[in-house]
Amino acid sequence: MSAVLSPVQEPVEEAAMTDGFHLVLDALKLNGIHHIYGLPGIPITDLTRMAQAEGLRVFSFRHEQNAGNAAAIAGFLTGKPGVCLTVSAPGFLNGLTALANATTNCFPMILISGSSEREIVDLQQGDYEEMDQLAIAKPLCKAAFRVLHAEDIGVGIARAIRAAVSGRPGGVYLDLPAKLFSQTMDAEAGRRSLIEVVDPAPRQIPAPDAVARALDLLKGAKKPLILLGKGAAYARADESIRALVERTGIPYLPMSMAKGLLPDTHELCASAARSYVLPEADVVLLIGARLNWLLSHGKGKTWGGKSHKDWGGQKFIQIDISPTEMDSNVRIDAPLVGDVGSCVDALLGGIGKDWPAAPSDWVQAITERKSKNIAKMAETLAKDPKPMNFHSALNVVRDIVKANPEAMLVNEGANALDFTRSIVDMYKPRKRVDVGTWGVMGIGMGFAVAAAVESGQPVIAVEGDSAFGFSGMELETICRYNLPVCVVILNNNGVYRGTDKNQGGGSDVAPTVFVKDARYEMLMQAFGGVGVYATTPAELRQGLEQALRSRKPTLINAIIDETAGTESGRITSLNPAAALKK
Ligand code: ADP
User: Fold this and answer.
1) Fewer Cβ within 10 Å of end Cβ, the chain: N or C?
2) What is the DSSP letter of 295?
């Protein structure tokens, strides 16, 4: 309050005021959101300045898509919505890919974009960066809101938070027109208008009859299998999941971002026998995993079906927070709707001393397959070909991750993704983040920034040279914030590999081929980071060890055989040309 003099010279109290800028920031802080990933510009530049002044950390990126990816994975890693802030129209559109990807992956995220004035947009009068952003965002996210009045900011942010994290998490768009920021209101009334969201992601307890049905099915199984998805990792029910696996003795298979929920080296981990257990299992318990393309839609040859549409005969129990997920591909015999923690605890409640041990012939058969495959892999990994290939390079990453289990692993590419997923074991939950449900390229540096910021741990980003290109400019961001990120580029001179030929015989290189022997490490050096050019596993090992010790931004350009890599990695069958070749 400040005293001013009235015309009759009597002191009066002038009410303290607040404005739209501060109400947005206060609402975020009130709800425990202290990080903003974004890219400043009109009309949100001042908001980013004020955010810093108010004690929030603002991470400024070079492209909104990377900021959006950072926010999305921050959401996955913290269980709170990650916030991405962009300018209007083009900035908003750049952020939208990440918002859609977050929604697809069930990551909680809020994209906040400044926008043009409603009056001009609605009459299509041609404003600066005019676009009806709310309408465009709606079909691509879980929920979309616009706030027009400062007194509604508290409600707007509360609704965005609830929509992002409750039930199935996802992306939320919040449209804040430029005029909102400069609106003022009484500070006390403003403070009272803010909402601290109580219990933003309420537990969802499964129905007792659904639990009994699931237990019945599981108890009668001769070849039971547990499949862990990234929904299980997100749910943070690590101890309960471990107890379920160990008390029942049922082998489990982790999807890529569920790796490490239990250590990949656990005796019941069936990853090394994946192609055996999927068609053989008779009852499959899905925990936070969808039967989408990554699991061949629960049917076809992968599951023991005779043709690609044929059902393999398994019975499914599915734990998911979203009731409509059930039966989306095949029949779910025992749907268990609720949050993973509550559902797994409910199952544990029904697993008493009389619970039968997992059939030993089944467990034994898996162990045998596993040992054989692990021995075969060890042989391949022990080879030292010149030039390096994916295996010899990733053998080094495998050792480094084993020695540093707290480190975060970011992974994208085609072959770089497939090989890393199968070669590099994870030991702790939520340490591996990757291309997710879409298999999207471009998440790399955005994920790496947020993984470093949110975990405080060193980050190893294993990137295909093609995948890296989508977000490579964020090396500057990594250096600017001095983040402990070590990017390892598995460089084979192109998309999939570097040896394709121009089929028309012209002088242009083939569409999948890049500049030969590109010196990616110099990009990192350009911004003050450490660049390493590695042509041998020993050089790669030394570079990685040094990066983890120093925590300095580092890029290792790992040169691998340019003939290494298959077309589309392991999804060759999805390439339409593959159908022509059949
Ligand atoms: P993956 O790709 O690892 O198989 P998906 O993204 O396909 O995993 O599946 C994740 C599933 O987890 C989604 O269907 C989502 O609804 C569900 N899910 C997310 N969070 C929870 C939670 N806390 N409890 C239960 N289910 C959840």
Assistant:
1) C
2) G
State if residue 343 touches ligand 1 by the CB under 6 angstroms criterion: no
Query: Is 267 within 8 Å of 358 (Cβ atoms)?
Result: no
Q: pLDDT exceeding 70 applies to what percent of the chain?
A: 97
Q: Tell me which of 168, 205, 336 to substitute to probe ligand 1's pocket, judged by most ligand atoms within 8 Å of the beta carbon.
A: 168
Distance 322 CA to ligand 1 centre (A): 8
> Token match 């696996």: residue?
245
Most confident of 409-413, 498-502, 565-569, 572-576: 409-413
Which of 415, 388, 462 is CA-nearest to residue 567? Answer: 415
Residue 230 alpha carbon to ligand 1 centre in Å: 6
Q: Cβ-count burial of 378 within 10 angstroms (0-12 exposed, 13-18 middle, 19+ buried)?
A: exposed
Which whole number is the average pLDDT over 389-394? 97
Rounded Cα distance, 232 and 321, in Å: 11
Is the model's pLDDT at 312 over the cut of 80? yes
Give the pLDDT confidence score for residue 1 in this predicted structure: 38
The whole-number average pLDDT for the span 105-119 is 97
**CA-CA distance, 182 to 330, in Å (whole number)?**
53
| Nearest atom of ligand 1 to the alpha carbon of 227 | 4
Q: Is the CB of 434 under 6 A from ligand 1?
A: no
Distance of CA 164 to the CA centre of its chain: 14
Ligand 1 centroid, distance to 333 Cα (angstroms): 18
Q: Examine the pLDDT at 3 and tell me if it is beyond 80.
A: no
Which two tokens mark 558? 């790992």
Query: Given the structure tokens 């010279």, which residue do they identify?
Result: 9
Q: Is 294 in the pocket of ligand 1 (CB under 6 A)?
A: yes
Q: What is the pLDDT of residues 84-103, one digit of tens each?
A: 999 999 999 999 999 999 99
Name the residue of 76, 226, 230 to mutate for ligand 1: max ligand atoms within 8 A of Cβ.
230
From the CA of 288, give the closest atom in ligand 1: 12
User: Which ligand 1 atom is the nearest neighbour of the CA of 235?
Assistant: 23
Which H or E run contains 577? helix 576-581
Residue pLDDT, tens place only, 405-452: 999 999 999 999 999 999 999 999 999 999 999 999 999 999 999 999
The Å distance, Cα 58 to ligand 1 centre, comes to 29
Nearest-angstrom CA–CA distance, 563 and 565: 6
Number of H helices and E strands in the chain, helices first, is: 23, 21
Which of 81, 88, 58, 64 lies closest to 181 in space, CA to CA?
88
